[in-house]
Each structure stands twice: as structure tokens, then as C-alpha cells.
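Not sure how to ask, but would you mind making up any protein sequence you like and the C-alpha cells describing how it folds?
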Amino acid sequence: MGALPVFRWRLAPDGYATRRQLRALGLRPGGQDVAAQLERPRRRRGPLVAYLYRVDLAKPVRPMTDAKRAALARANAARRLCPECRRDAGYVISGSLGMCAPCAYPDLSESPRST
């Protein structure tokens, strides 16, 4: 395997694209190896690197099937379910808390009584 061609930031020739750029075009790498890389220099650290793929070898994105759509909906619903109180939180539960906000901070959920 030879060395990859390295291009400076924003100076890659036509015919190369990053994964995000391919996705915006409705394409995917399709099993091809990285064809080149971009490097963006930084002052105090190593350069930022982006891998490039050849557009002519890219394949179309596979269409979303009904089964995939249903599985994705179930996975997103599971991320909203609080494991503590088993209720739908209405938002994706934070991984750092691991439960909905009322379960994580029960003292804050009580309203103060005015006397």
C-alpha cells in the first residue's frame, strides 16, 4: 500500500469528497479505501485531518426500509424512557444523569409552599 496523497485545507482537487460531502450528494463510500486526506494546520497542536473518498467510486445511499424506520423509532423512544420511573420524559435522557430530571433532582420538582 502506497502513501496517501495529502492536500492542504480547501485545496483538494475535484473528484474527492469527505463522508459528509458524499452523504449530501446522496452517496456513500461503498467499501472503497480512503483515497487521500486533507490537513488543516493548527498553531499549537497537530493538524486536523479529514479523509477523502473518490466520488466516481461512491455508491448510492441505501433507501430507508419500513423495518429500519420502525426500528429507529423504537430506539429513539427507548432513549426517552426513564429507567427509574418508566415514564416518557418528552426528551432524550442525558447519559450523565441516566434518568429524567424529576427523578435525578426530586427536591427541585417540589413547589415551594407560600405561607
